[in-house]
Amino acid sequence: MRRTAVVFLVAVLTAALAYAHTDVTPAEAKAMIDAGGPLTIVDVREESEYCDSTYSPPGHIPGAINMPYSSGYLQDHYGELPISEDIIVVCRSGGRSNLAANFLDGEGFTSVFDMLGGMNAWVYETELCCQASVPGLDVGQTGLSLEVASPNPFGVETEIFYTLPNGQGAVTLLIYDTRGRLVTRIVDEPKSAGTYRAVWSGTDDGGRPVSSGVYFSRLTWNGVSKTGRMVLTR
To answer: What's the rounded Cα separation, in Å, for the pair 232 and 155?
Structure first.
């Protein structure tokens, strides 16, 4: 009898540890965002929902990154997320975010927060993909290309190759953090057609090392943009 009770207790504790994320209200999530500490907001809706301007509220929480759960993107790319940083998971109504939070719990993330009620309950500021510093959709259809940073994840520096189509134009290659804040400008000058190599050493515009986490490279040429993700590990 005692052995059965011990086995039952171990099973209960194991289940509790497997799903150890914290539920937060939208107001609590907003307070965490406003506090300005290390934080990643993961919107697990599909890309069409994340960028939907007709839904109420439209768009997504400013700075949120889109890693859809139902189509499997989060499951394939969760390793890009900072495992030691606070992560708020959000969806439309709370169902998918709970599943995603459980998944991250099971992968060893220790500071996951599930926003109850999802975007249906969010009454604060939102942004559309066309307004975001790090857009959820690439803008324009041209021969412009941005290769995946290599190595990725990286610890010291990473290479970013990009190709410009025919003609000449103003080119910027910028690095943003997960809150949409500009970290540094790698390229900001006119360039002609061709393939180029840029290097980012994990520093800001002042040459100061930035913390570990997810960052975005955003290439813009003549109003057309491409975006990539990279992970810095110190």
So the answer is: 6
In CATH, the number for domain 145-232 is 2.60.40.4070
Residue with tokens 């520093």: 203
DSSP states of 51-64 as a string? Answer: T-SSSSS-SB-TT-
First vs last C-alpha separation in the chain? 50
- For the stretch 22-72, pLDDT in tens is 999 999 999 998 887 788 899 999 988 988 888 889 888 887 888 899 999
Compute the distance between CA of residue 45 and CA of residue 58 in angstroms, rounded to an integer: 13
What is d(CA 156, CA 1) in angstroms, rounded to the nearest whole number? Answer: 56
Amino acid at 4: T
In terms of DSSP bridges, do strands 86-90 and 112-115 run parallel, antiparallel, or are they unpaired? Answer: parallel
| Every domain of the chain and the residues it spans | 7-121, 145-232
Q: Which CATH class is domain 7-121?
A: alpha beta
